[in-house]
């Protein structure tokens, strides 16, 4: 299985690094194309067996999978300037907000296409990766699921849920980081050194996530365990709601759709 990755930025670069650390595709079978050399040099330094090029067409020659990792507004021109073979090749795209119908207009309705939305934790193999398929067999879906499962948690969803799920996971990681940033600032105001505060808050967020993931419980149940009647936590929780915390999160998620 040979993969060409077009675009070596945050997503393309992290996916290339993630794939070579997994078991599904060998480094020699990955070719990454990017117009400038800095990110390609970094990939070569990470693993010299990864092939790199400045030429998109050269990258996709002999590729079974062409993975598009350019900005959404470049998708059309990049696809129009390569000879993608929809009979032999599978298109995988990470471009957010570009529907299957847009790709069909360029490469035809018979093509097999996957829309894949990771988040930036893919660089640590801790991504939540959403996968939607078009014209794919069950075997092809399973391969994509297995490939991205090695870089975190991958889920197959319908394209109709892609925008909402992208808001929760891919944009959502920024909201979690925003919470961490704000909490660290509170800690600093209360006299804790920033590095210590960041470690405390980040580990607390990780612990909260693990409680839900490992116990398959509900956030309200876990919150109830923390909250002593007349105690400290309820004072802060009520302050959050007076300031519109839940409403702000819901509005943020919906705005990111
Ligand atoms: N960042 C994120 O959290 C997520 C991003 N996405 C999607 O991933 C895609 C890429 O985003 P991201 O990785 O963050 O962006 P980056 O800007 O980090 O990466 C894009 C890469 O594409 C390269 N590029 C530009 N033009 C071309 C071209 N004509 N041919 C080949 N490569 C080209 C750029 O090279 P150079 O810098 O040299 O110009 C750059 O390395 C977007 O469509 C985005 O919607 C999806 C989920 C999450
Ligand atoms: O902000 C964005 O548009 C990209 C897509 C999802 C996460 N980052």
From TrEMBL:
Residue ranges occupied by any Pyrroline-5-carboxylate reductase dimerisation domain in the UniProt entry: 159-256
Official protein name in the record: Pyrroline-5-carboxylate reductase
Amino acids binding NADPH: 56
GO BP annotations listed: L-proline biosynthetic process
GO CC annotations on file: cytoplasm
Keyword set includes Transit peptide: no
EC number: 1.5.1.2
Similarity comment: Belongs to the pyrroline-5-carboxylate reductase family.
Catalyzed chemical reaction(s): L-proline + NAD(+) = (S)-1-pyrroline-5-carboxylate + NADH + 2 H(+); L-proline + NADP(+) = (S)-1-pyrroline-5-carboxylate + NADPH + 2 H(+)
Enzyme class name: oxidoreductase
Domain Pyrroline-5-carboxylate reductase catalytic N-terminal: residue ranges: 2-97
Top-level taxon of origin: Bacteria
Residues that, per the record, bind NADP(+): 6-11, 69-72
HAMAP family for the chain: P5C_reductase (MF_01925)
A GO molecular-function descriptor: pyrroline-5-carboxylate reductase activity
Annotated localization: Cytoplasm
Pathway stated in the Swiss-Prot or TrEMBL entry: Amino-acid biosynthesis; L-proline biosynthesis; L-proline from L-glutamate 5-semialdehyde: step 1/1
PANTHER family, alphabetized: PYRROLINE-5-CARBOXYLATE REDUCTASE (PTHR11645), PYRROLINE-5-CARBOXYLATE REDUCTASE 3 (PTHR11645:SF0)
InterPro entries tied to this protein: 6-PGluconate_DH-like_C_sf, NAD(P)-bd_dom_sf, P5C_Rdtase_cat_N, P5CR_dimer, Pyrroline-COOH_reductase
Broad class of the protein's primary localization: cytoplasm
Annotated function: Catalyzes the reduction of 1-pyrroline-5-carboxylate (PCA) to L-proline.
Keywords: Amino-acid biosynthesis, Cytoplasm, NADP, Oxidoreductase, Proline biosynthesis
């Amino acid at each position: 299985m040979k993969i060409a990755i077009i675009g070596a930025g945050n997503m393309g670069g992290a996916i290339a690094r993630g794939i070579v650390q997994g078991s599904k595709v060998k480094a020699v079978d990955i070719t990454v194309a990017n117009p400038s050399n800095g990110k390609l040099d970094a990939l070569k330094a990470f693993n010299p067996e990864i092939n790199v090029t400045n030429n998109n067409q050269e990258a996709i020659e002999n590729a079974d999978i062409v993975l598009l990792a350019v900005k959404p507004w470049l998708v059309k021109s990049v696809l129009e300037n390569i000879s993608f073979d929809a009979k032999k090749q599978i298109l995988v795209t990470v471009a957010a907000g570009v529907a299957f119908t847009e790709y069909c207009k360029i490469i035809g309705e018979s093509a097999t296409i996957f829309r894949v939305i990771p988040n930036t934790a893919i660089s640590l193999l801790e991504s939540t990766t959403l996968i939607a398929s078009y014209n794919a067999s069950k075997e092809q879906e399973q391969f994509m699921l297995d490939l991205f499962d090695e870089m975190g948690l991958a889920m197959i969803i319908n394209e109709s849920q892609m925008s909402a799920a992208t808001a929760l996971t891919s944009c959502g990681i920024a909201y979690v980081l925003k919470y961490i940033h704000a909490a660290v600032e509170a800690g600093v105001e209360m006299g804790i050194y920033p590095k210590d505060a960041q470690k405390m808050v980040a580990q607390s967020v990780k612990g909260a996530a693990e409680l839900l993931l490992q116990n398959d419980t509900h956030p309200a149940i876990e919150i109830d365990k923390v909250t002593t009647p007349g105690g400290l936590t309820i004072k802060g929780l009520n302050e959050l709601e007076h300031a519109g915390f839940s409403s702000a999160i819901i509005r943020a998620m919906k705005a990111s759709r």
